[in-house]
Design a protein that fits this description.
The structure is a homodimer of 505-residue chains. Chain A has 19 helices and 20 strands. Chain A has 505 residues and is an alpha/beta fold. The first copy, chain A, has a domain of 324 residues: Trimethylamine methyltransferase-like (TIM Barrel, Alpha-Beta Barrel). Chain A has a four-stranded mixed beta sheet. A four-stranded mixed beta sheet of chain A has the order 9-8-20-19. The longest helix of chain A has 22 residues. The first copy, chain A, starts with a helix and ends in a 6-residue tail after the last helix. Chains A and B meet through helix 2, helix 10, strand 16, helix 11 and helix 12 of A and helix 2, helix 10, strand 16, helix 11 and helix 12 of B.
């Protein structure tokens, strides 16, 4: 056992930070829709935007912006000819760089680039030692450290878990500060209220400097619409704060087919696309050229209980469909993730997460929130799940980034001169030249024979993941940061917290 | 707990036999190779067939057949111009029907059809109650019953586990008899020796009748080459027995890149294709038009230990590549499966199986052996794993068979007349019309909230799978069979067993 434990420790010693900031995909996209399917879906998208209309609620400034642009505004419902909406969306960038404070970790979002970020928004955490519980800021800091250290996560997101021991109106300050100081990867800012979005922007300006921020996207917000067909002020205010400052926004229709959309994948995909395009157009009215990511979170339900289900054929299909539609619209896409309804890190969690993520990967999602750590339909962040999912992300990273090499060296003709029928290639010169980079080497998969595995304690993947993340935290070292900037950030947070009364709801 | 247990029992009551005999795919294939990649791979395939050559060993009859066809035979190495090999392969069928004794369960293999069959060849079994052990005939019969009962398995394969308590030279008789009498789905026959292949053919003739067998494929053999570049007499003799009788043969190069092929996915794919095409040509020399399935079993290795690894990016890529090449060759394809190196039904097993199977599915594999039950790199059949994998196959079945419906009904325009912004579709007429068939309903995924799940005993997927398969066996009823045929089959087996001395190796 000692020997085997040492082996795992040695393997996971590599889990620090790699130079690769994101995936530059060479594998083609999987585009399963034919011309008729595309035509019927896009006609439906256009019909929703120009005939059904979408409500922009509780934000008179948003309605004023629409009216100024010539939209038909009927109470709070906005309609506009689809060609005009699509024309407005043309100023959005096909791809853009989100600068990280460590420029080696900056990511490109859009085009052939794919960026993986952890789960967002869970109030609970679970780990093998302490079980399930409300998340605290201590958990949150550990999760930020792990997301920073893991080479297969390119972006740290924001609410890896809700720090429920901090007042609701102050959490964003501690969270943003943690991402800025415990990690040097790119991350998100808050969106739940206009002032919190502004705090995030102000902190990003301290971190990156005004000039850099003027010229670059250094922070993004991620915000859900109120599907069906409703955009509330949380969305439009976040856009006004982020986009006016030239920063990025990810807008995500959250649709369980049958509840927030019709009980049909095609209709829900079209609705999601219509909602997102309308908001994209709005973002470009606020600031032409503002970085915009078209989001999509579409899943199915158990028709027995109404509970959301994940990794099922309907959301897999919607990932493939929305990928194709987003590329046609020329917009960066967020969809999918390692999603599951399972409560623990069992086979259900892994089957559902893998089918969800395999389709997310092939669909070409450019920004993948929830790529690691998701349990219980998003209610719970799993420490082991985070590390297990992230290990599998390395496999997708290799598949997308490498595709199929058919160079002369890959075809290995010289090896056939050395190896006879029924022989083996283990000792061939080609094998010696290539074996070190031939295969993805996962950290947490055990491929040894059953005797070795039993000798090492018959550990399942959860137990190995527990050993892995606890070991990573022991080795954590914060990335360097200018002490004056760190103090200014801390001072900003302290002042804002002092100015605000505690609010717990 | 009682309530919840009852619920699972009720759900799994549905696990009998569905009418759908296999998947008729409407989802397009994922074809990631571009023209240059295809050209370079096919040039390599041709080079191996005509310049490197492939050895046909220990079967002088096979060499005679090749010589008669004009091949260049140098000792036992066969070479032939690639265009001649490819021309010979043209008589193989693009698709064919394997008749089941219950015609409702006949399957079409090839084209847009996909057929799922369980694991093949494991000497061990594992279940949650009794752990890991050598498989017995009692285990084997249980596994055949489960494969018969499960609606997502279309074919029962043959060696779902090795009945190690029966002499090696008699196992095939008991196994084939079990498939023929405990199930009415299509299955395979033996290949390990010419006489055993002949026994399988003779039993199929008893079951189906001479006339039916003359006109139809009613049984197939599945046999591996001795990669690299070696076809031994087990393969050529099996082909001579099966194909001469107009029956099907699946021939599978088994290649771990770096051992039985170069340490390169492209080279291994090309080698597998070359070996399989040479054997296909041979099968067509034996009998033009004989049903042939081009097999592929390609995986990676741990470079630390040499142990095979599964579900990794390299075999995922090889599934996609071989799918595209097999379609270009116009041949039915066997590849992939729910493969894993894990010893138990944990998250590792599920992640690896799902990535392996998702690519198998999109690649368009027509006959998928190992689609359920595989553990430990194929050394062990898991009872729970069989049922867990099969549950996920239903999701693939829906995705492939349904694709994306964009009919007027699917676009649900009327629902937008009923539901206002921020409302919900739960009560809309469209939902009432469509909810029953809207979503795949898995049997073993638990999507309830954490409180319900804990109240039901906090069972993980393995435990639910154990409850499921034990309940299925309690409900098992054999499909009807003509008593005279059954007696004739039993008589054949009894006579053959009496004629043979027990052999245990």
């Amino acid at each position: 056992m000692a020997r085997r434990n040492r082996k795992y420790r040695t393997r996971t010693d590599n889990l620090g930070v790699l130079p690769s900031p994101h995936i530059r995909r060479v594998l083609p996209f999987f585009d399963p829709l034919d011309a008729e399917q595309i035509n019927r879906l896009e006609t439906q998208v256009d019909w929703i935007m120009q005939d059904v209309g979408i409500a922009f609620r509780d934000d008179p400034e948003a309605l004023r912006i629409w009216k100024d642009a010539g939209a038909n505004v009927d109470e709070d419902t906005v309609r506009m000819p689809a060609d005009q909406i699509r024309a407005l969306c043309k100023t959005a960038l096909r791809d853009f760089v989100q600068l990280a404070r460590n420029p080696d970790r900056s990511v490109t979002i859009g085009g052939n680039n794919q960026v993986f970020a952890p789960i967002y928004g869970a109030p609970f955490v679970r780990d093998l030692h302490s079980g399930r519980r409300y998340a605290t800021f201590d958990d949150f800091e550990k999760l930020v450290k792990l997301a920073y250290m893991h080479p297969n996560l390119h972006h740290t997101g924001l609410v890896i878990a809700e720090p429920t021991d901090i007042p609701v109106n102050k959490r964003h300050l501690d969270m943003v500060l943690a991402h800025m100081t415990l990690s040097d990867k790119p991350h998100l800012g808050a969106i739940t209220e206009m002032s919190r979005a502004q705090d995030s922007i102000d902190m990003a300006e301290i971190l990156h400097g005004r000039d850099v921020m003027d010229q670059n996207c250094v922070i993004m917000g991620n915000v859900n619409t109120n599907s069906p067909l409703l955009i509330d002020k949380v969305v439009t205010e976040a856009i006004r704060v982020y986009c006016r400052r030239g920063q990025g926004i990810v807008v995500v229709p959250f649709i369980l087919s049958g509840a927030m959309g019709p009980v049909s994948t095609a209709a829900s995909v079209a609705q999601a696309m219509a909602e997102a395009l309308m908001v994209c157009a709005f973002s470009q009215l606020v600031r032409p050229g503002a970085p915009f990511v078209l989001g999509n979170f579409l899943s199915s339900m158990s028709l027995k209980s109404g509970a959301p289900t994940f990794g099922m054929p309907e959301p897999v299909m919607s990932n493939y469909a929305i990928g194709q539609l987003a590329r046609r619209a020329g917009l960066p896409l967020r969809c999918g993730g390692s999603l599951t309804a399972s409560k623990i890190e069992d086979a259900q969690a892994a089957y559902e997460s893998a089918d969800s993520m395999h389709s997310t990967m092939l669909a070409g999602a450019n920004f993948v929130l929830h790529a690691a750590g998701w349990l219980e339909g998003g209610l719970c962040t799993g420490f082991e799940k985070l590390i297990m999912d992230a290990d599998r992300l390395g496999s997708y990273q290799k598949l997308l980034g490498q595709g199929l090499d058919v160079s002369d060296e890959a075809l290995a003709r010289d090896a056939y001169g050395e190896v006879k029928p029924g022989g083996h290639f283990l000792g061939s010169a080609h094998t010696f030249r290539n074996y070190q980079n031939a295969f993805y080497e996962p950290t947490l998969s055990d491929s040894e024979n059953v005797e070795s595995w039993e000798e090492a304690g018959s550990k399942d993947m959860r137990q190995r993941a527990y050993d892995c993340w606890t070991g990573m935290l022991e080795r954590y070292e914060p990335p360097p940061i200018d002490i004056a900037i760190k103090e200014e950030l801390s001072g900003f947070v302290a002042k804002r917290k002092a100015d605000l009364p505690d609010v717990w709801y």
